[in-house]
Write a structure and sequence with these properties.
2 copies of one chain form a homodimer.
Chain A lengths: L1 H22 L2 H9 L3 H9 L3 H10 L5 H6 L3 H9 L3 H8 L4 H7 L5 H10 L2 H11 L6 H4 L6 E3 L4 H11 L8 E5 L5 E6 H6 L17 E2 L4 H11 L3 E5 L5 E6 H18 L13 H28 L1 H6 L2 H29 L8 H31 L2 H31 L4 H29 L1
Parallel strand pairs in A: 1-2, 4-5
Antiparallel strand pairs in A: 2-3, 5-6
Chain lengths: ~450, ~450
């Protein structure tokens, strides 16, 4: 229900905008776009076929262009950037925060980057270079160097006067960071405590130093975990020497959480979370073709197993009729186990201490389900084909395949992870290969032994 | 890589704890647990088989019990609560925030709720009743009634003095809410502006009233969308008459975002995001059995299609060998389209304005891929079986099935959504039924026409 309401809201905006663009009434479109946040505009751009997307993009306030570019997937972004000339691009990105600019750098033409860097002051240029020197997907790339720091040997009153002089705080400033003379991180002091404590209170009485700062080389996944485990809004980032380099804020972390959670759903189908739903056919077909060709390879493997049993099938054609059932049920039950495992691995919930318990549990569940479904299927097949031995064969084959797929569902993702592959991406293909080949081998092999 | 590092960290904690529990050295376990946040403890509890989980649960500081219960999935939570006696439960939950207590109410025994409610003052009791009066998955259930409000006709100085008197601010207070005499929401004033503006500035000069408050009946999905579209840390909630009822904070929103994104990955395999990975076998097998039985039904449908063509298969047994390929490729290509559509629908990116474009695009992609793979498969089959007509039949059948599955991938989730079903849950089963039956029908039908 909740999802439907949401869909209705965004879809309504989408319909209004689409209709207006179709009819050429661009005035109302422009006014509507001005009321939207960059993220909302980004979502609408992602929801439009290329020709409409370009019209809408042309109507976005040039001041918002940079922020909007940050809120669309990689593929859509490339298309939008290709549609802009150099001056427009420079104007769009030159006012962005350093961390946001760093996100865009690799998508921008060199000429644009050079121009933007030339217009920066020396401080900002050094900051950008610093942020870019860290690996993608690390805290260093997520952090913004713009932080408010205070010294421990002062009072709230002094800090309040300093803040009034400063005039503005960076977004999401819930803590100020206390640093030493050498700019080393000593702890944080909440904005709330500045507001509620007596102005004469010394800062060092209010310091919260329970939580160490984030290491600049920490992975973004671990950063996201820490934010959601501790309900942080912002957190300090330091180098090896504990020198404060910048801070990470919750808005960037929410994007990571969303991306990582989407990754499991999309990569199970061989898709990339940055795929443009409306990408041109010539781009889309190539990506899909690679995935389908991999799957064709596994299908050939299954077919070659069946091929070994051609003589048996020739005698008992009912086997061909029942083949899809055994393979399909193995695939379904294995996928359930695989999906739970992939999530558990992503959350760090699975390790040597519990994997044997999991395997035993899944095999027990598979044993019960395999027996129940095997008997059920056996009875149906008996009624259908009136051959008691065939009914026995398919019942046993189903049990065997459900057990195999449970073991595969637990062990395949673990093995992939250990070998450095992404279980979310490769797990499904490998598991299907396993359940198909083992399913056909069990069913047709047993049939050959018992029925011929 | 990022995921592996994360896994390593949590898995290391898990291994340490597991080993310590195994060896019975509970002192170190207790000390380690005291350094962890409730969310981290919750994650570790979810990562343990029942017997270890109960040991760890007994070592958690009773003061943290309530917070930890909030950070585990429904099924794990039920188990933990079942393990506690009434006094422990009352002690665990009586100090929780109203909104958090409301989350737990339905899992708690009536006796515990009555005891907790009795110990509350009248204000809190009324607040709890109010929060519970709203539907689950609405803003009303997410909000916390504890808000800091100020009046417009005063100055910063007065507000600062009031805050010092108040002494403490609720977590994540980045804005104070300005209300009228009748407690109607008028706008918000940032904590940053309180710190940086001159103390004599009148509040009404600093009010930010650009964004309307969230309606108390708004769906939690829409609340999450607004938070991430506007980078909010907190937002006000009002009733029909614009009276301020409470506020929602980013920590609860992050949980919603995570759950909704996981929903797609898990429900595609017929799983619930609240499933306990270590649930007892007698619980797990029942849930899985229901899903497998549904899938068995669709497998029977596919088998009965094959059954119609038994005479053809009897003559040409190669058809049985190649059957899995045609059906499998249709399933794979259809699943890609389905996965993109399910995500697009969840994000509200698909509507009447773009669905025809999407259908045309996916059919074009399927046409190219179907032709390419059809020719490729045809050549392989020609080399394998030396039957040109068979090779023609399978090539055409593959093309037909890839096209069917693309159309199904677009239309099945749309139809499900329109009928009020969850496309993420039912889409896969329906699409597989379609691609299996149409795949076999196309392949075996064509073979019957041309080869016999």
């Amino acid at each position: 229900m909740a999802e439907m309401i949401r869909q209705d809201k965004t879809a309504r905006q989408l319909r209004l905008l689409s209709d207006a663009i179709d009819s050429g009434r661009l005035g109302p479109v422009k006014r509507m776009v001005q009321t939207l946040s960059p993220a909302e505009i980004g979502n609408l751009l992602e929801s439009m076929p290329p020709h409409k997307r370009n019209v809408l993009w042309g109507l976005v306030d040039p001041e918002d262009d940079g922020e909007v570019l940050l809120h669309v997937g990689d593929e859509v972004r490339e298309g939008l950037i290709a549609d802009m000339d150099q001056d427009e691009l420079v104007a769009a990105v030159e006012d962005l925060d350093i961390d946001d600019l760093a996100d865009l750098v690799e998508d921008l033409p060199d000429a644009v980057i050079n121009e933007v860097v030339r217009s920066m002051d020396r401080d900002d240029r050094e900051r950008l270079e610093q942020v870019l020197s860290y690996d993608e997907d690390t805290a260093g790339r997520l952090m913004n160097p713009d932080v408010v720091t205070v010294r421990a040997d002062t009072t709230i009153d002094v800090v309040l006067r300093y803040l009034r002089l400063r005039g503005e705080l960076p977004d999401h400033t819930d803590y100020l960071f206390v640093v030493s003379k050498r700019h080393q991180y000593m702890g944080r002091i909440s904005v709330a405590s500045l507001l509620t404590s007596d102005p004469n209170t010394p800062i060092n009485k209010l310091i919260d130093d329970a939580q160490p700062a984030i290491d600049v080389n920490e992975s973004s996944t671990e950063v996201a975990r820490q934010f959601s485990d501790h309900d942080w809004v912002s957190a300090p980032v330091v180098d090896d020497g504990n020198v404060l380099l910048g801070r990470i804020t919750i808005d960037d972390v929410v994007d990571i959480i969303r991306e990582e959670a989407e990754h499991q759903a999309l990569s199970a189908a061989g898709l990339d979370e940055d795929e443009d739903m409306f990408s041109p056919v010539h781009k889309a077909f190539r990506r899909r073709l690679i995935w389908l060709t991999v799957n064709l390879g596994t299908a050939f493997l299954a077919a070659s197993v069946v091929d070994q049993f051609s003589p048996t099938i020739e005698k008992i054609v009912a086997l061909a009729v029942l083949m899809p059932i055994v393979a399909g049920m193995g695939g379904n039950s294995g996928t359930q186990v695989l999906t739970l495992m992939v999530r558990g691995l992503a959350l760090g919930q699975i390790g040597a201490s519990n994997v044997w318990f999991l395997l035993r549990k899944e095999l027990s569940v598979a044993l019960i389900n395999g027996l129940a479904l095997g008997v059920f299927l056996g009875v149906i097949v008996l009624i259908w084909f009136h051959q008691p031995m065939l009914s026995l064969v398919i019942g046993c084959a189903l049990l065997f395949n459900v057990l195999t797929s449970a073991a595969g569902g637990v062990l395949v993702p673990l093995a992939l992870k250990r070998m450095g592959f992404d279980p979310a991406l490769a797990g499904g293909v490998l598991l299907t290969t396993l359940t198909d080949t083992m399913g056909f081998l069990g069913f047709l092999g047993l049939a050959t032994l018992i029925l011929t």
